[in-house]
Design brief:
Elements: H1 13-25, H2 32-61, H3 72-82
Amino acid sequence: MADDFEFADKVPPSFDRVGNVIKDSSSKGFNPGLIVLLLVGGLLLIFLVGNYVLYTYAQKTLPPRKKKPISKKKMKKEKLKQGISAPGE
């Protein structure tokens, strides 16, 4: 008596719909979050590579920076520290 059920071979309608959703989800395409992640990652990568290329180009083509001229006061102080008398004193 326990083995003779009327609905033994049928699936309830709520479970049947869940099965269809799982089957259809793989055919919808990319996840929108994945698209945004790839887009932001790609832009960041392009930015970093572009900065590196510009940096290497600038190192090759630009002349070296000029040093700031030292004021006469600073030169006198440096010479006095070293023990050399400044000219004219």
